[in-house]
């Protein structure tokens, strides 16, 4: 049983007892960076995080371990209301895996660090740029009360970076575009219009992003749900 008062060293020691070589091998097949991994499934890390409770200062110490599961625990136990943009930037310097990025993006959106979206989108590092578009996707889905105009304001950023051919970027740009389009009818039309424009591009990556988004956003099943 994990106590809320457990410090970083105690949590790391506990996680290390759960190491699974078999799981580490399985993670690699999903493109998860396993260097420094313990092979602990994410639901198990989340269960430990629930017991440990939130502690922003401790999360900073956990992150510095460099261990995959410990860093996930840092993300799950950081306090969104206390997380600063500078702390988020420091963590982004270490990003090297799509799953870490996507968990971090959810935290950054919950923390209201929207100013990082444009900054990260213009960063040339693959996983930092992915963070920007994972944040957009998360905001479009989870911020139900956000004005649609604020969500739509990210479409030009999607268009601007739709030509980045790197796998983890192009998939995130596509994800962000589709997420905006699926938000509601108000967001659907502009997102679909952009998707159709991108689908006509001479650039291979841009064209793929557009066509894939059109395939989903123009579907009758989605339109029926939005109506």
Describe the protein's architecture and organization.
With 227 residues, the protein is mainly alpha-helical. The protein has helices spanning 8-16, 21-28, 42-52, 56-63, 68-77, 85-92, 98-110, 115-121, 126-142, 148-152, 155-160, 167-181, 185-199, 204-217, 220-226. The radius of gyration is 19 Å and the shape is elongated. It starts with 7 loop residues before the first helix and ends with a helix. The relative contact order is 0.08. The model has no long low-confidence stretch (mean pLDDT 96).
List keywords for this structure.
227 residues; mainly alpha
Give the helices and strands, then pairings.
Layout: H1 8-16, H2 21-28, H3 42-52, H4 56-63, H5 68-77, H6 85-92, H7 98-110, H8 115-121, H9 126-142, H10 148-152, H11 155-160, H12 167-181, H13 185-199, H14 204-217, H15 220-226
Helix pairs in contact: 1-4, 3-5, 4-5, 5-7, 7-9, 8-9, 9-12, 12-13, 12-14, 13-14
Q: Note the gap between the termini.
A: 48 Å
Using the alpha-carbon principal axes, give the shape. Answer: elongated
Nearest-integer average pLDDT: 96
Count of helical stretches: 15
Compressed to H and E, one letter per element, the order equals HHHHHHHHHHHHHHH
Indicate the proportion of strand residues.
Answer: under 5%
Helix share, percent: 55-70%
In short:
The chain is mainly α and 227 residues long. It has helices at 8-16, 21-28, 42-52, 56-63, 68-77, 85-92, 98-110, 115-121, 126-142, 148-152, 155-160, 167-181, 185-199, 204-217, 220-226. The mean pLDDT is 96.
């Amino acid at each position: 049983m994990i106590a809320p008062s457990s410090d970083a060293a105690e949590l790391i020691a506990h996680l290390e007892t759960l190491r699974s070589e078999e799981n580490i091998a399985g993670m690699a097949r999903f493109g998860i960076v396993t260097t420094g991994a313990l092979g602990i499934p994410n639901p198990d890390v989340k269960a430990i995080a629930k017991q440990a409770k939130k502690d922003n200062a401790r999360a900073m110490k956990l992150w510095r371990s460099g261990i995959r599961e410990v860093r996930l625990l840092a993300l799950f136990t950081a306090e969104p209301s206390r997380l600063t943009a500078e702390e988020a930037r420091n963590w982004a310097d270490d990003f090297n895996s799509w799953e870490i990025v996507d968990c971090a993006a959810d935290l950054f959106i919950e923390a209201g660090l929207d100013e990082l979206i444009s900054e990260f989108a213009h960063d040339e590092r693959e996983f930092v740029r992915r963070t920007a578009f994972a944040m957009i996707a998360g905001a479009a889905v989870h911020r139900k009360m956000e004005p649609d105009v604020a969500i739509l304001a990210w479409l030009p950023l999607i268009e601007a970076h739709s030509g980045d051919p790197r796998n983890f970027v192009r998939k995130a740009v596509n994800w962000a575009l589709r997420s905006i389009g699926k938000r509601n009818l108000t967001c659907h039309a502009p997102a679909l219009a952009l998707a159709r424009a991108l689908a006509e591009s001479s650039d291979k990556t841009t064209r793929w992003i557009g066509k894939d988004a059109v395939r989903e956003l123009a579907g009758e099943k989605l339109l029926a749900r939005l109506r």
